[in-house]
Amino acid sequence: MSHDQKKEEDPRKVNNQYPLDSNCYKILDEIGKGVSAIVYKAICLPIDSSVVAIKAIDLEKLKEDFDNVRREAKTMTLLSHPNILPAHCSFTVNTRLWVVMPFMSGGSLQSIISSSYPDGLSEYCIATVLKETLSALSYLHGQGHLHRDIKAGNILIDSNGSVKLADFGVSASIYESNLPYGSSSSSFSSSMMLTDVAGTPYWMAPEVIHSHTGYSLKADIWSFGITALELAHGRPPLSHLPPSKSLIMKITKRFRFSDYEKTKDTKNKKFSKSFKDMVGLCLDQDPSKRPSAEKLLKHSFFKNSKGPDFLVKTLLQGLPTVEKRFKEMKTQMPLSLNKTEEEDDDESVSENPKQRRISGWNFNEEGFKLDPVFPSDHKQVTFGGETIIKDKGKESDGSSNSSSPEQVLPETDQISVQESGSDSQGSNAGGGHYETDQISVQESRSENQGGNASGGQSVISGGSGAGAGAGGVVWKDNEMVLKTLKFLKDSVDDQRHLVSHMINLVRVEDTANLSREEQLMKEIDNLKVELENEKKKNSELQLELEILKLQLSDE
Ligand SMILES: Nc1ncnc2c1ncn2[C@@H]1O[C@H](COP(=O)(O)OP(=O)(O)OP(=O)(O)O)[C@@H](O)[C@H]1O
User: Fold this and answer.
1) Which of 118, 359, 420, 471 could pair with 431 as two cysteines, CB 3.0-4.6 Å apart?
2) Which residues belong to the annotated binding site for ATP?
3) Which residue has the higher pLDDT, 502 or 354?
4) Is residue 156 lining ligand 1, measured as CB closer than 6 Å?
5) Per the domain annotation, does 527 fall within a domain?
6) Distance from the CA of 108 to the center of ligand 1, in angstroms?
7) 3-state secondary structure 105-129
8) Residue-wise DSSP of 260-305
């Protein structure tokens, strides 16, 4: 039956255009759930019962983001590129905005990974899907649009292996920014800056988080780099941490990929030099140094790209349907799928085994190593004598000496650290204790006792518990000591993150009665103070590290 014949039969079908009436669609199944939307598989009855995906966005949940949603629908209908998912139409149904779009039977790369590739994809797959994504991004940037939410969850794949970039919920046009758009899309210009915070925290570029400095097209390139890591490892770096803005602010500060090519991956997965180089270019802290999408397309890594048939034969082979995957995920992760925004900040969510596959990323070694840290290696963290994160391997009694050698991070497998922190004189309460028989480090801090520039003393001894007393320094292996100091510093950072997280939780209660604007102002003030403290502490630690390095070189 031709479309024209059908048109006569069904008055709702106009020129093969998708009708703006919910009665014309029959919902078949739920296939996805985002922060404020549910995605359904449906058929459009008047158009030959063609299969579509409907993203039903809850406008009540959004409220202040309504402009973004309208922008998504508008952007999707205006853009035309083989790697960009178009929208057939959009209309409101009660309190929801329905965006009707083509059904991509493979679903998102995120759903594929979490269902079938928990440890990540092969580099050939990554090169293939990312090259297509980059083509979409290059087109988008050429049109003066930022996507602002590049991640595996927004890269969809069809049964024929075609790859499409979707979800323009937070996309923005640089034509729409307050400032004039003055130069070509591939060059970074201060006249193209946007200033509002948008996107998904773990993928956000540092300049988006520190949005007062403005950001532009290169923010998408950062997210693209994070997406590459997400595809390679199964989840984005540091995604076990709560996505609070203040936390992410610190997290992104810890990314130093400029020397990424120096990385020597020795465990779990090996990556090619060209992959590391490509990721390293994207994750440059300085946006102006990141390549444009157009330039990145010419990177040697994308020569590994294989085309859609390859994806059909590898990635999609034997994959459960998108609806089945969603059902499975729902039964496995009821918490995360039903959680509210507040619960998002709750670390207990990451208790879910799927979400905890990698509990973090270890950058300790040489400062640039990107090794996933697995949950079983999760160390116990104590603060002020109280156990904040329990050792996964054993029940902790909260005492400072309750940790086992297994708690030592695997990447620094010959190093152990014993920390004890105290603000009051003489007391030695709190602190984690990680030790092996190779080396142990004990750090004691007492604000009222004086000591070195940062008010602390470090004791490093060869052999567990043996060797130097307070104030003495016995160095056995310079490299090991440096690694240990780095680990110590990271451990302090971790504790600070946790404290910030707790402070944030308390603040949520505190500010519950304030207006949204007042809350944001308050949060900004708090963040400023927090940032200043952080800077101060970091420079103190830096100084301490430098002093210890000097002592080391004297030895
Ligand atoms: N057009 C589509 N065809 C097939 N599956 C889709 C389509 N759009 C979305 N999905 C599925 O629904 C899931 C949720 O999509 P959605 O865009 O709502 O959420 P998200 O991008 O993962 O999260 P959010 O945008 O809220 O951060 C996707 O991961 C994907 O598997």
Assistant:
1) 420
2) 55
3) 502
4) yes
5) no
6) 6
7) CCEEHHHHHHHHCCCCCCHHHHHHH
8) GGG----SS----HHHHHHHHHHT-SSGGGSPPHHHHTTSGGGGG-
Q: Is 311 in the pocket of ligand 1 (CB under 6 A)?
A: no
Q: Is 103 in the pocket of ligand 1 (CB under 6 A)?
A: yes
d(CA 382, CA 391): 10
Task: Please check whether residues 313 and 200 belong to one and the same domain.
Answer: yes
Residue 149 annotated as catalytic: yes
| Same-domain status, 91 and 186 | no
Rounded Cα distance between 432 and 541, Å, is 18
Q: Which atom of ligand 1 is nearest to the CA of 35?
A: 26
For residue 440, give the nearest of 470, 478, 466, 421 by alpha carbon. Answer: 466
Kindly tell me if the per-residue pLDDT of 13 is higher than 90: no
**For 28-48, how does the pLDDT look when each residue is reduced to its tens digit (9 = 90+)?**
999 998 767 899 999 999 998
**Which CATH number covers residue 253?**
1.10.510.10
Name the residue with tokens 């990635």.
315
Question: Ligand 1 in contact with 53 (CB < 6 A)?
Answer: yes
Q: What is the pTM of this model?
A: 0.58
pLDDT tens string 254-266: 555 444 334 444 3
CA–centroid distance, residue 243 to ligand 1 (Å): 19
Higher pLDDT, 163 or 209: 163
pLDDT of residue 379: 43
Reference 236, options 130, 120, 314, 376; nearest CA is 120
Residue 433 reports pLDDT greater than 50: no
Q: What is the mean pLDDT of the chain?
A: 65
Residue for token digits 């290169």?
Answer: 218
Indicate if the alpha-carbon torsion angle 57, 61, 64, 65 is positive or negative. Answer: negative
For residue 62, the enclosing domain spans 2-102
Summarize pLDDT for 166-211 with one digit per residue, the tens. Answer: 876 544 443 333 332 223 333 333 234 444 445 566 777 777 766 5
Tell me, in angstroms, the distance from the centre of ligand 1 to residue 114's CA. Answer: 13
The tens digit of pLDDT for each residue in 102-133 reads 999 999 999 999 899 988 999 999 999 999 99
266 shares a domain with 117: yes
H/E segment holding residue 338: helix 334-338
Residues 171 and 188 in one domain: yes
* Closest by CA position to 257, among listed 282, 232, 237: 282
- The H or E element that residue 388 is part of is strand 386-389
- Closest-CA residue to 105 (of 168, 31, 33, 46): 31
The active-site residue out of 149, 167, 284, 493 is 149
